[in-house]
Amino acid sequence: MADERWIIVGLGNPGPEYAGNRHNAGAMVLALLAERMGARFKAHRTRNDIVEGRLAGQPVTLARPHSYMNLSGGPVNALLGFYKVPPERVVVIHDELDISFGAVRLKLGGGDNGHNGLRSITSALGTRDYYRVRFGIGRPPGRMDAAAFVLKDFSAAERKELPFAIDRCADATEALLTKGLIEAQNQFHTDPA
């Protein structure tokens, strides 16, 4: 019997050399959510680091895949099998190029918009119908390749704002769990001042 558990996945690449990259925004938000729960990540047999507990009163498993971003689907699918949770109880937090830095957007389903982590998860789950909390990182400057841009650390100016943006994204994730998609969108779909 499946419980009402949510699985919240923060996307990123493993290893200290990637920790500050724009592509790791999802993992940064997940770390703050774990901190709010007062819990530490531990390795799990599903090839994820996980935290189990309650967030905003809801039973959750926070998960950080051990794989690189473009192979996230396998570990995420393993979690769904382990917990017997359907895809519509999954929230994936990830970086998003098409949203200005610091803005947060929430949605259910949709395409992967060139995001290899989402592509891998959609392929492994066999559906696009999972929630996404999108952390805006903005477009690369000039002619910089998007793939190079996402693997660079946030700029000095962005780093000053980053804690606030991560906090806002964590708040949006909690609102999604407690208030539902529409109300969370209404609350967070305004660009930060």
TrEMBL record:
GO terms for biological process: protein quality control for misfolded or incompletely synthesized proteins; rescue of stalled ribosome. CDD domains: PTH. Its main location: cytoplasm. Pfam families: Pept_tRNA_hydro (PF01195). TRNA binds at residues 18, 68, 70, 116. PROSITE patterns: PEPT_TRNA_HYDROL_2. One of its GO terms (molecular function) is peptidyl-tRNA hydrolase activity. InterPro entries: Pept_tRNA_hydro, Pept_tRNA_hydro_CS, Pept_tRNA_hydro_sf. The record marks 13 as: Discriminates between blocked and unblocked aminoacyl-tRNA. Monomer. Hydrolyzes ribosome-free peptidyl-tRNAs (with 1 or more amino acids incorporated), which drop off the ribosome during protein synthesis, or as a result of ribosome stalling. This is Peptidyl-tRNA hydrolase. The gene is pth.
